[in-house]
Amino acid sequence: MTPEGFRLYPEYFDRSDQEALAAMVFEAARIAPFYQPSTPGGGTMSVAMTNCGKLGWITDRGGYRYAARHPQTGAPWPPIPPPLLGLWADLTDSGPPPDACLVNLYRAGARMGLHQDRDERDFSHPVISVSLGDTAIFRIGTARRGPTASMKLGSGDVCRLAGPARLAFHGIDRVIAGSSSLIPGGGRLNLTLRRAS
Ligand code: MD6
Ligand code: FE
């Protein structure tokens, strides 16, 4: 059982939409390069990150937060690709548009531990994510130590965390290398849309 308010939209984006979206993201990454963030605990994430939008989610030794500029270049983040604004409008009620899009890049061996998305100001807005490229094993549950459901997220799949599931614990156990040909160099992109402010 997945938490109430969790919803998966399998293959929301078709292959040509996926290719266009991946190209837009890598184009944005020329302005805002992927980097491997440090964590407050002193480690380094296996996932490479960048952002689009007015705000970007960052982590370093000082903690987790949203920032208007890339921590390494000091430049503002590039705009959110238009298809993602359309996705948000499609899957949300008449609320404000997203102001942050975290871009996670999983190359070989990268994973993401169980976490909540809770650095946003108002949890009444959903979080919506798009998976592109290699299939991931996604895990989600209501409590950190409680039961979790596990499912595959394939290329073009969209998931939405809203309502009671908005603060669910979730993570990526692993990515199945070579399961998609979408991403040049292989791997997986996950684009997470939020209203941060
Ligand atoms: C990932 N996703 O799929 C990690 N967060 O790589 C997330 O952390 C996530 O998929 C909030 C809402 C949807 C998500
Ligand atoms: Fe998350």
How is this fold's topology laid out?
Elements (H helix, E strand, L loop, with lengths): L5 E4 L5 H17 L16 E5 L3 E5 L2 E5 L14 H10 L8 E7 L5 E4 L11 E7 L2 E6 L6 E6 L4 E4 L7 E7 L12 E7 L3
Antiparallel strand pairs: 1-10, 2-5, 3-4, 5-12, 6-11, 7-10, 7-12, 8-9, 8-11
Bound molecules: N-[(3-hydroxypyridin-2-yl)carbonyl]glycine and fe (iii) ion.
N-[(3-hydroxypyridin-2-yl)carbonyl]glycine binds next to strand 7, strand 8, strand 10, strand 11 and strand 12.
| Proportion in helices | 10-25%
Beta-sheet strand percentage?
25-35%
SSE string, helix = H, strand = E? EHEEEHEEEEEEEE
Shape summary: globular
- What's the helix count? 2
Q: What would a concise description of this structure say?
A:
By secondary structure, the chain is of the alpha+beta class. Helices cover 14% and strands 34% of the residues.
